[in-house]
Amino acid sequence: MMLRRGGAYRPDRSGPGGPFGPFGLSGCGHDEEGRTFHLVYTECAVLSVTDPALAGQPFLAAPNEMEAFLAGQLTAAQQAGDTAPGLDARQETVVLLALSAGLGLSVLLGQRSADDATAVLRYHLGRLFPAPAAAPQDGGLAGRRKVE
Questions:
Q1: Residue 40 dihedral angles phi and psi, to the nearest 5°
Q2: DSSP letter string over 92-138?
Q3: Residues 117-135: pLDDT tens digits?
Q4: How far apart are CA 70 and CA 23, in angstroms?
């Protein structure tokens, strides 16, 4: 994964969504670690709003830090020309986090398979990080009339 806390954005064209793919896929419950993460995170979220002893704890600090970090990474990807033009990095980050959380929960509840959730996430990441257009094999001359 190319995302590291405090690290600079580094382009990663190895898969859908560049460096954001591994982050999103980790929340989809595709493996035991992802399932465990989602179960623990969901339990902490529920306890933070139902247990008065936990109500004042800084539960939201980590998600807010992740949101700020990912927004910074997406902004850097935008500046590098790796994203679709005209994106609002903060809003897209919120969508990505909500999508990952919602898909992970749907996998835990058996609504969809981890493969289905992964396909949905890759679809969204493909819209954020469109594949670069392939260079024409003929140097861009196809369809042009020869001028003599």
A1: -65, -45
A2: HHHHHHHHHHHHHHHHHTTSS-HHHHHHHHHHHHHHHSPPPPPPPTT
A3: 888 988 888 888 887 665 5
A4: 10
Q: Which residues contact 51 (CB under 8 A, 6 or more apart)?
A: none
Q: Which residues contact 99 (CB under 8 A, 6 or more apart)?
A: 24, 120, 121, 124
Tokens linked to 99: 């999508």
CA separation for the pair 51, 44 (Å, rounded): 10
Taking the C-alpha atoms of residue 115 and residue 125, their distance in angstroms, rounded to an integer, is: 15
Cβ–Cβ < 8 Å for 89, 74? yes
- The structure's pTM equals 0.70
> Tokens 């139902």 correspond to what residue?
50
Tell me, rounded to whole angstroms, the distance of Cα 132 from its chain centroid. 18
Amino acid at 138: D
Region of 136 (left: φ > 0; alpha: ψ -120 to 50; beta: rest) is beta
Buried b (16+ CB within 10 A) or exposed e, 7-30: eebeebeeebbbbbbebbbbbbbb
Residue 91 above 90 pLDDT?
Answer: yes
